[in-house]
Structure formats: structure tokens, C-alpha cells
Amino acid sequence: MDLVHALQEPLKNALGQATAKVMAEHLGLHTVGDLLHHYPRRYAERGELTRLSDLPLDEHVTVVAQVATARVLRFNGGSGQRLEVTITDGSGQLQLVFFGRGIHKPHKDLLPGTRAMFAGKVGVFNRKMQLAHPAYQLLGGDGDAHTAAEAVDSWAGALIPLYPATAKLESWKIAKSVDAVLPSAQEALDPLPPALREGRGLIPLPEALLKIHRPHAKADIAAARDRLKWDEAFVLQVALARRRFADAQLPAVPRRASPDGLLDAFDAKLPFELTDGQRRVSQEIFDDLATEHPMHRLLQGEVGSGKTMVALRAMLAVVDAGGQAAMLAPTEVLAQQHHRSITEMMGELAEGGLLGGAEQGTKVTLLTGSMGTPARRKALLDLATGEAGIVIGTHALIEDKVRFHDLGLVVVDEQHRFGVEQRDALRGKGKQPPHLLVMTATPIPRTVAMTVFGDLETSVLDQLPAGRSPISTHVVPAQDKPHFLARAWERVREEVENGHQAYVVCPRIGDTEDESAEPRKGGKGKKKAAAEEDGDKRPPLAVLDVAEELAHGPLLGLKVEVLHGRMQPDDKDAVMRRFAAGETHVLVATTVIEVGVNVPNATAMVIMDADRFGVSQLHQLRGRVGRGSAPGLCLLVTDMPEASPARARLGAVAATLDGFELSRIDLEQRREGDVLGQAQSGVRSSLRMLAVIEDEEVIAAAREEATAVVSRDPDLEHLPELRTALDALLDAEREQYLDKG
To answer: I need a surface site. Which of 375, 476, 649, 690 has the fewest CB within 10 A?
Structure first.
């Protein structure tokens, strides 16, 4: 048991209270093991020796030179002191400065005539080049030129680890602390089963920790990284495999559609053919629903690929089998929209029990937070009695008061907007765990699906239904070419004159409360990045301002309305109804229209300050046009200069309609953490070495190995080291919620 303790020892025992406190507060490191897993971000090579006459500014250099002069100067009325050392190598001179308490050792070491090697970053002070607080190593006297040359080679060639640091704790101080705890690495418990490690040719964990912190050569770093990536991927996939295994042991009521029931009646009246993809995915879902364990399936599909149709057919199959189906939507606008479109698709089948309703019909009920008390009471009664076979709602469905007669299937739309507890609270309303179908229109690269939604089987709808029109996308550089923007507004007018409608999207609302518009996926990090990229030159454009300008300027005479997240639900609904009915020509909105808004007559979209949105978000927004028979047009307006990363991002969106390709680009440009999301508590903190996109092969292989290990030994009784690593990664609650974003 002592083995565990070496890495679990608090840092204050190893490093002292003061250092440990800074490490805990600023880096979240508490134990020896935490510090050993705080890997260098990169490695500096002290590098080629540079002649003093050829020094480049602002670069790290290593020079070998002789001390010419050394003197201590006082400043601040004598309270401050600095050591100035002049060195020469025959080709030129360079000044070194050391300040404060840092002068004592160099003052003793760097006496005139001493030869040494110095490494640091070249700066300028009083128009003279200098190194401030350089690292140095004394070289033997001239007598032993051979030894001196060897020392130069080994020191200059060394790889210097640079750690993720903070202002309070520089990289070299972290390196010193790592040196103090590195002997404990020998006692690290290896979570990889020996057969797996040997089969994959991976080095043991203690060796990997040693090589990642103190490599002698680049090959050491590569071997250590390969090994440490496997640790992260494997332990994470074991956690997910155990969750899949546990879920597979749960009981569920099999739900098989009855022949000649509601589903058959619905299919018979469809005015179009289902795509091959819709048929294939529906079959996967029906197979899952027929089993005695709860389905856990993630349905990915591009905007407009017909996910709602697939989900509706699954819900009808469950109603056929005597159960109820609930669809959970992230916003009221979306819940109302789903309710409307599902009721329209079903026609008289959605009027079960009503005069004129079909005999095998059911009732489709809406439940949202803003409903009046009588309507709400009626909806709750329909759920409790089983009168409503299908219910569509927002978070209101999760409240304690809501009771179902027999909940058989939960469909969650736009998974990334739902917290874990919500998903599980709804599942807890079934007598036995209901089947679960999670839908997302954000294409998720396979590796992210394996990492984030590791307990869900995945189905992908990758073909668009017949009748969907192509969308052409263009970047409008408003700053470089103002006439392009003028032309954009002319294009909007032309679409309206041809009987169509248009969206204009802005990042901000523009009322007094608002400084952040709708809640954004990607959170703080993305906004900060956008601000840094454009130097914060002006606030993002706002819906209320832009609508005003357009209505009195380029779009004068057209009916322009606004839509944003802080309007009253009834007002929002009224605006959407007018737009859907064609009464409004142009809708100026925030990203509230990003998900689920379906107006086939809208053919044009202008996205203002497009550089302030993420790649996947732009793709989502663009999917709102071209939903009918007329082709769609999306114009990305930006002030960013041509060479900027932001313009490259917009160019990528304009160049392809493939959401999976774009989600890859998006992921490569953002940090892993943003993708895995704040809510992935276990995942976020555990991925230090693994890069979700680049390490696809490692993740896929780790998933396979993990599944095999867990099926042989679900409780990991024979793998205590792996069990320990798993406990360190997740406490019990985290394991349960690991993959819920």
C-alpha cells in the first residue's frame, strides 16, 4: 500500500508550505503525483552557440564567453542593487544584468577572466543588447580545453523543459520542484495491464515520467509521450466502457411497433420517400428499442438531414408499444417549433381522442415554463393519465410535479445544451430506465464522439433529403471593400423581390443589459480569443442597432423585425409566426435562430461580424437557409484583414458544406478543453497529453482494449493499479457523469 502513498504525498511535505500553496492556488497541483503529471509544454534547446557579434534580438541564445568586467550598482537611493557583467568572445561584447537578491551567486561566480556558457533571451536596454538573469554554467580553465568543449556540447545540447507556468511560479522554479519529487516516479503504479503495454511496445510508466521531465534526446520525449497518451486514453475509455457495461445490465421494457399501428399509418401518409440513411438509422433505433436493456444512442446529422423525422418515427413506435415518448428541447422557441412541425407531420394522427382524429392516433402535448396555469394543468394531466403519447417540452419536463403514465423513450435535442443532471432527471421518471436517443446537428468528429459520448452508440445521417437546395457562401470584407457590403444588401432586396425572405445575424442584442448576447457555446475562452484577435477595436454589432440602420437605410421599405433571447416568449413566438407566414421580409436576430428554426422560404442570410462566431456555429446558422426548393445564399461579413487567422476561418466555412470537415477545422483551432466543455469535469482535467483530433488512432485502439478488459473483468479485480488510476481520475459521481456535456 506504501506504493500508492509516494505519489499521493501532499506537496507541502516534499516542497515546503510556501511553494505548495502557490502550486495549489495557481496550478491546481496538490500531490507529488499531480506535479509529476504536470508535463512540460515544450522544450527549449539551448541550441547552437551564437557569436556575440551575431546576436538576434528577442531570441533565446547560448554563448560562450569570458567575463571582462563585473560591478555592482545601487539605485533607488541605495535600496536597490544590480550586478552588471560585461562578457566578450573576441567577436563582440554583451552586457548581463542581475537584480536584487539574485546578484549574490553570480557576483561570487563571475569574476573577470572566468569563462562560462550563458543562455537567455536577448533584450535591449539603453540601446545596448543585454541578457537579464541569464542561466550560466562555468567552464574549466583553458588548461583543459577538451573537457570545456565537452561541457559546452552537453550543456548547449540539453533539452530544457518549459512548463505551463504562472506569473507567481516561473517555469524554472517548477523544474526545480520536479527535480525534488522525480525520485518518487520510480514508485508510480502502472495502470496499463502488462500484456497490453508489452503488446503495444510502450515503456513502463516510471521510465515515461523520467523521460518526459528530463529527456536526454528527442527520442526520449517521443517514447514518453506515446506512453502517457495511452495512459490518458485508456483510463478514460475504461471509465466509459464500465459505464456502457453497467447500462447494459439495466432492465428496460422492450418497445416494438405493432403492425398496422400508428407508425405504419404515419409512414403510409408520408408525401415523400425516406432517404436510405433515414431508413438505416431508423432500423438501428428500432433494433435497440426491441431489447431488454435501455438504448443509448447518439444521432448526428447535418442541419436538415431529417433527424426530427427519424426521432418522430422512434417515438411513434414506442407509442404503438403502449409507452410514452418525451422530447426535450433546449429553448421554448425550439420546443414550440418541434411541437408545431410534429403536429403538422402527423396530421389527424396527432388528434388521438379528439373528434375527427384518427382511431389509432395519439395526443401530442407541449409543456413549457411560460404556459398559463390552466394549460399547464391540462398538459400535466395528459401526461399522468397516458392520454398524451408524445410530449415535447423544455426543462419544465424535469420538474418534480411532472408524472408520466409510462415513459418509454426520451429524445434529447441538441445534447450540448443540456447538463447531465437534467438528462438523468428525465430518465428517472420512467418505471424502468427509458430508452434514450440524443440528437445533435453539430457534427462531432469520430474521436470526440468516442471521448465525450463514449457511452452512446453513434448513428450518422450524412445525406440530405431530396428537395434540399445547395447553399453558396461568400466572405464579404466590409473594411477592405465597402462596395461588397452595399452589394450584399442589394442581394437581400433581390431575394425579397423574388418572393423570398432573409435573416441578418448579429453577435449582440444591443439593449442596456446585454453585453454578451445569447449564451455562447465555447464560453469565455472564445470571446476572449475573438477580442484578442481583433485587438478589441469596437464592440460587436448589435441586433437593435443594425435593424434600425437597415430599416432606414439600405432596406428602406421592407418589413424588418428583430428576434433575440431576452424577448418575452409570446413576443418571440409572434415574431417567428409572422416570419414563417411571410409577413416579415427580413429578420434581424442573434444566434437564437441557430437551432431548429425552419422557414423554407428564407433563402438569404447575412452574418455580421462573422469572425466573432466559431466555425461550427457559422455552419449551424447557415443551415437555416436553402431549406426549400430555392437555392440558399450565406454572406459572411467581416472587418478582419485578409491575412488574419479569422479570415482563414471564414474562408474555410465558405469553401465547404461538409460539417464534419468543418468541425475538424474548428477543433484544430480551439483548445481541447473548449470542445470537451466545462461540464466534462473528469475529462477536462485529465487530458494533458492527448490531443483529441491528432490521436484518433490511440483513442480508437484504447477504446477497443478497454472494452475487452471490462468485459473480462468488469470490477477490475485483477487490475488493482488500473482501479487506483480510475479512482484518481474520477470519484464515483464523476464516473457517472463523465461523458455528459
So the answer is: 375
Report whether 337 contacts 598 (CB < 8 A).
Answer: yes
Cα 48 to Cα 61, 320, 625: the distances in Å are: 8, 75, 57
Task: Please write the tens of the pLDDT for every residue from 250-304.
Answer: 888 999 988 888 999 999 988 888 889 899 999 999 999 999 998 989 898 876 6
Q: Are 386 and 323 in contact (CB under 8 A)?
A: no
Helix, coil or strand: residue 670: coil
Give yes or no for a contact between 501 and 585, defined as CB atoms under 8 angstroms apart.
yes
Rounded mean pLDDT, 135-139: 80
pLDDT of res. 67: 94
Quickly count: other Cβ atoms within 10 Å of residue 539's Cβ.
Answer: 13
Three-class HEC string of 202-261: CCCHHHHHHHHHCCCCHHHHHHHHHHHHHHHHHHHHHHHHHHHHHHHHCCCCCCCCCCCC
Q: What is the pLDDT of residue 537?
A: 59
What is the structure's pLDDT at 358? 58
- Could you give the angle at which helices 659-669 and 615-622 cross, rounded to 10 degrees? 150
Percent of the chain with pLDDT over 90: 36
| Beta-ladder partners of 14 | none
Backbone angles phi, psi at 225, to 5 degrees: -65, -45
List, in order, residues 6 or more apart from 458 with CB less than 8 Å away.
297, 298, 300, 446, 449
> Sign of the CA dihedral 124, 125, 129, 130?
negative
Strand partners, 75: 80
